[in-house]
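Worked Example 4.2. Consider the chain below.
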Amino acid sequence: MLLTEWAWSPSLQVEPSVRRVLEDRFDATIRMGSGPDEFIVRPGGVVGSVTVGQTGVTVRPKIDIDRVLFMVAYAHDPYDWQNQMSTIGSVDSLVDGMAGLFVRACAPLTARGLLRDYRTVNVDDRVVRGKVAWPTQARRIRPVPIALRHHVHDDDITENRILRAACQVLRRHHVSSRVASELARLWNILRDLGTLPMPADAADRVRWTRRNAHYRPAVELAGVILRGQMADLVAGDVAVQGFTLVMHDVFEQFVRTALRNAWGASEVDMPDSWKGGQLTLDQANRVRLNPDLGWSPHGVWKFVGDAKYKKDDSGTGRSSDIYQALAYAVATRLPEATLFYGEGGDDRDHVIHQVGKVVRVRHLDLAQPPQQLLEQLRRIAGESVFAPTYRHASLQPTQG
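Applying the procedure from the previous section yields the following structure tokens:
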């Protein structure tokens, strides 16, 4: 079954287990088709390939796969994305392209030798090495073996275990012979490392320092791969395996990274998420807002906006999105907020004169060459930043 995101399919026969996966994993809308037991399907903003029992389902992105890979590569390494894209060449499969990006990101790490660090090991032994783990040893009836705790310095650390987990996921899928051989070489380096119970969560919790900063692009890309896997899920009594990408997340992170680079903003001043109650709309600080995009150096708001990969049927911004952006502008006390849509349309400035705010709607043409798309974002960045006037709304709340 071959589908395209946001596009209606012809009438198809869809088994109940496949329908469940389409609705749950691909955010699909399914309606009755022209014939008996037939349906038409429109996937949402999720792309990838899955196998439901014996049925293969592929949802293609609305843009070329290499444009999707460009956004992924740029978001995780904005300084080396051109080298990464040049090494993977032209690909027909999303998994093949993601595997190529991952292998390329890991190449400099394995070339210089895997990162090593100290870690704590708990073992049982007949001879004391390190410290005795007295809380454990005291509960034992026999004195031998002895519960011990000591430190070792090796490469079996969290960062390398995350890379191992991502490599293992990619090896389950069908990829080109060239990428398969590169994955096999990488696996031979990583295979003897330990495993993590929740490697995707571990990738989000890694603390970056000068010691491990060179690992960041590869580990963040591994996190995308691990979050996209569908390993041994079950739809009813049918096993499901596959790999997907949520395009809204890809688009949002791409836009955020491009704006950071345009302004020289740090991740502290322009974080990935504003969750946690820093921005509120009302005086009592109960109506919390979480914009996709916000730049607030030293607590002074300079920019706020949202990334919308979904379809903009009007071509000038959805009303609900404009209301949302207006709330951001009011809460931050900025004169404007910006909406980024991931498809063509008319750029427009909506002036809300009652409150003295402007909501800018900007459409990014994701099908254009990468350099042109980055230049378009730089132009928007240049027109959307204001001189600091007010501090965080949570510190100086507006009237609710």
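The first strand starts at residue 2 and ends at 4. The CA atoms of residues 164 and 190 lie 5 Å apart. Compare this with Example 4.1 before moving on.
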